[in-house]
Write a structure and sequence with these properties.
homodimer, about 200 residues, Helicase, Ruva Protein, domain 3, Dna Topoisomerase Vi A Subunit, Chain: A, domain 2, 2 domains, 4-stranded parallel β-sheet, about 45% helix, elongated
C-alpha cells in the first residue's frame, strides 16, 4: 500500500494479540500521522523495554530490576508466596491489590497434551525458595482448568514434605476461565476465601 | 506493575485506536516474552517507518518515496483523479482494486462545527493539479455525511470552471447489507437512484 516499511509495520501489528489486519492498519495509520510525537516515542519505549526488562531470578516476574520491585520491596509479607501461571496473572492480582506477599511465576501449567512436564516450568526454583526462605504459606492461584488443577495437585504433593501450609484460591474462578481476564472483585473474593 | 519502562509502554499501546488498557497490557506482555524476535523488530520497524514515510507532495498519500508508488506508476491512468478524505480511504479503495487512476487526499472534510475551512484541507494543490495535468475526470469519493456532501458541493463548484468531468461514487445499500438496519437517508437515496 505505502511501501515496504508500512507493509512490514502493519504485519507486525496485525500479529499482536487482540489485533488483526484491520486494527493493525488503523493503529499504523494513526502512528504515521504523528511520526514525531507518537511513532518515535513508541519505537524508543519498545527498544528501552526490550533492553531493560528481564525475568526476576527469584520469582519470574518481568521488571527492569532483578530482583523485581515486588521481591525487593521490604513492605511485602515474605511469609506468603502466591504461585501463578503467568506474569499476566501476577499483574491481575496486583491490580486487585489483595495479595501483599510475594509471587512465584510458573510460566504455564503441566500439560500432558501440550507435552509440558515439571522440568519445563519454574518449579524447582519454587521448591528451593520454600526450603530456603521464611515462607509459611504457599497460595496456589492457578486457572480452574484441568491442567491448572493437575498442576495444583502436583505442587501440593511436592510441597507436602516441607510441611508448609498450602492453600488454593477459592472456586469462584469460573471453570475454564483464565485469571487475567477476571474483574478485581472476583479475584479479591477468590483470594480471601482461599482454603 | 513492572517498572516505569513497562508502564510507559502499556500507556502508549493503550492509546492506539481500537486498543485500551486491557488489550494494551496483553500486547505488551506478548512482546516482552519475545524481546529479541518480536519487540526489537517492532521497535526498528517503527523507527524506520517514522524516518522514511512522508506525505506524497502530489497526492497526499503516505509512502517512503515521493512521489508515492501510485503517482510514480506509469501503468496508472493519469486521466482520472479520485478525491478521498484520508489515506485510510485511499488504502481501502486500493484493496478493492477498482480504481486504476490517481488519487488526491484532502486530509478531512469541510466542517462548520469543527472549524475546518478550505484552507485547512489539501484543496489548492488539487485545483493546481487539475489545471496543470492531463486529468479528464475527478471522482469524488467522500463520506456520505453532511460534511462530506458539503465538501463535494464545494469542490464541484470550484472545479466547474475548469470544465473537467466531475463524478461521485454512488450511494445506496452496501453489498451484503440488510435493508432493515439501514438509516432512512440511505434507503431514500438508494430508492431514488434505482436503475
Amino acid at each position: 500500500m505505502g511501501g515496504p516499511e508500512i507493509d512490514r509495520l502493519i504485519s507486525l501489528f496485525a500479529k499482536l494479540p487482540g489485533l488483526g489486519p484491520r486494527s493493525g492498519r488503523r493503529a499504523v495509520l494513526k502512528l504515521l500521522q504523528h511520526p514525531e510525537t507518537r511513532m518515535l516515542p513508541l519505537a524508543q519505549a519498545l527498544a528501552a523495554a526490550a533492553r531493560a526488562v528481564r525475568h526476576c531470578t527469584q520469582c519470574g516476574n518481568l521488571d527492569s530490576t532483578d530482583p523485581c520491585a515486588i521481591c525487593a520491596d521490604p513492605q511485602r509479607d515474605r511469609t506468603q508466596i502466591c504461585v501463578v501461571e503467568s506474569v499476566g496473572d501476577l499483574w491481575a492480582l496486583e491490580r486487585a491489590g489483595v495479595h501483599h506477599g510475594l509471587y512465584h511465576v510458573l510460566g504455564g501449567t503441566l500439560s500432558a497434551l501440550g507435552g509440558t512436564g515439571p522440568d519445563d516450568l519454574n518449579i524447582a526454583p519454587l521448591l528451593a525458595r520454600v526450603a530456603a526462605a521464611e515462607a509459611t504459606e504457599i497460595i496456589l492461584a492457578l486457572s480452574a482448568t484441568v491442567d491448572g488443577a493437575a498442576t495444583s495437585h502436583f505442587l501440593t504433593d511436592r510441597l507436602a514434605v516441607s510441611g508448609i501450609r498450602i492453600t488454593r484460591v477459592a472456586q469462584g474462578v469460573p471453570i475454564g476461565g483464565a485469571l487475567d481476564v477476571l474483574d478485581e472483585g472476583t479475584l479479591a473474593t477468590a483470594l480471601r476465601a482461599r482454603s
